[in-house]
Write a structure and sequence with these properties.
2 copies of one chain form a homodimer. Chain A has helices spanning 2-11, 32-45, 62-72, 130-142, 160-166, and strands at residues 13-14, 20-21, 29-30, 53-57, 76-79, 90-97, 102-109, 118-126, 145-155, 171-179, 186-187. Chain A is α/β, with parallel strands linked by helices. The first copy, chain A, has a 6-stranded mixed β-sheet, with helices on both faces. In chain A, strands 1-2 form a two-stranded antiparallel ribbon. In chain A, strands 6-7 form a two-stranded antiparallel sheet. In chain A, a hairpin with a 6-residue loop joins strand 10 and strand 11. Strand 5 of chain A pairs antiparallel with strand 3 (29-30) of chain B. Chains A, B: Belongs to the purine/pyrimidine phosphoribosyltransferase family. Xpt subfamily. Chains A, B: 5-phospho-alpha-D-ribose 1-diphosphate binds at residues 127-131. Chains A, B: It is found in: Cytoplasm.
């Protein structure tokens, strides 16, 4: 996706430790026009799948997911990273975050994910794939069908992509970053 | 906003303890078409203000804020409830949550809020106003101008609305709930 590649080159900050900072346009300050273009590209990538619901994870996945839900006229469910007091029946899974070096719970109400759902998961980043696998566990617990996973940016030098593909998941990342060496972003396709 | 009132009556769950559960269409599962209509109403309510940026707070504020940012073609900044390791210079404020009976920090990077900004704050709920006042503190620390605050639902039987109005803030709530007594939602206008 050229528009996204160009924007990452222009406004992204790459660091040798594998960090790619895009918080001026994706995950702290957000560019809604870019988010709409990203959603359009997801429509194209997942065309013809019988999706009835978008699922994402708070907080940075919500913007692209709601834009995609708007275009497809589908409900969007966001998985929560904390267990709300008011939620009674829910699916729960644990996710280990390397960035934060801690394990956190992800959960979704049983009311909003069921065996009748055919879902598309959307998130901002794919790195080691732990968060995506945590959400996959929720989808599996609900007996729902996972049609695909779409990410804005993938760190292709980490193992997430392969872990998901090995499970037979249709993974679409709009920008695949092969290297951040020397503070320079290199895309792999 | 009749569409929103009708939806709250249809799908909201009211409890005598003052809880209004709208997580089937606003803050867990989200209806993107409704979010677009909500954003259009915010455009109408805040027409002619010299806003250059939308500010919201994770996670439930992001959907209406990004839709509004999309319509107005303005950047959207979401205030974080945790202090990210990668954020160096930020404005910070503490918020006490009655619902969760704990104090949490809210923060925004100094890069995305400055004295040149004229911001509109958007969130899903206004109750006691503590979260909104926490964000106002961040806006004040940055020397930015606050043009108004827009909420999808206001619990008008709590003190938030009056606390914000007393500070001279232009507060617009699209559904003002006067009472939840007997599990019945009553609007005040």
């Amino acid at each position: 996706m050229k528009l996204l590649h160009d924007r990452i080159i222009q406004d992204g900050l790459a660091f040798d430790d594998g960090t790619l900072k895009v918080d001026s346009f994706i995950n702290h300050q957000m560019d809604p026009i870019l988010m709409k273009s990203i959603a359009v590209e997801f429509v194209r990538r997942f065309a013809n799948l019988p999706i009835n619901k978008i699922i994402t994870i708070e907080a940075s996945g919500i913007a692209p997911a709601i834009m995609l839900g708007y275009l497809l006229e589908l409900p969007v469910v966001f998985v929560k990273k904390k267990t709300p007091k008011t939620m009674e029946k829910m699916y729960l899974s644990s996710v280990y975050s390397f960035t934060k070096d801690r394990t956190y719970d992800v959960c979704v109400s049983e009311e909003y994910l069921s065996k009748d759902d055919n879902v598309l998961f959307i998130d901002d980043f794919l790195a080691n794939g732990n968060a995506a696998l945590g959400v996959k566990s929720l989808i599996d617990q609900a007996g729902a069908t996972l049609s695909g996973m779409g990410f804005i940016i993938e760190k292709s030098f980490q193992e997430g992509h392969q872990r998901l593909v090995d499970l037979g998941i249709n993974v679409q990342s709009l920008a695949r970053v092969g290297s951040l060496a020397g503070g320079k972003v290199q895309f792999i396709d």
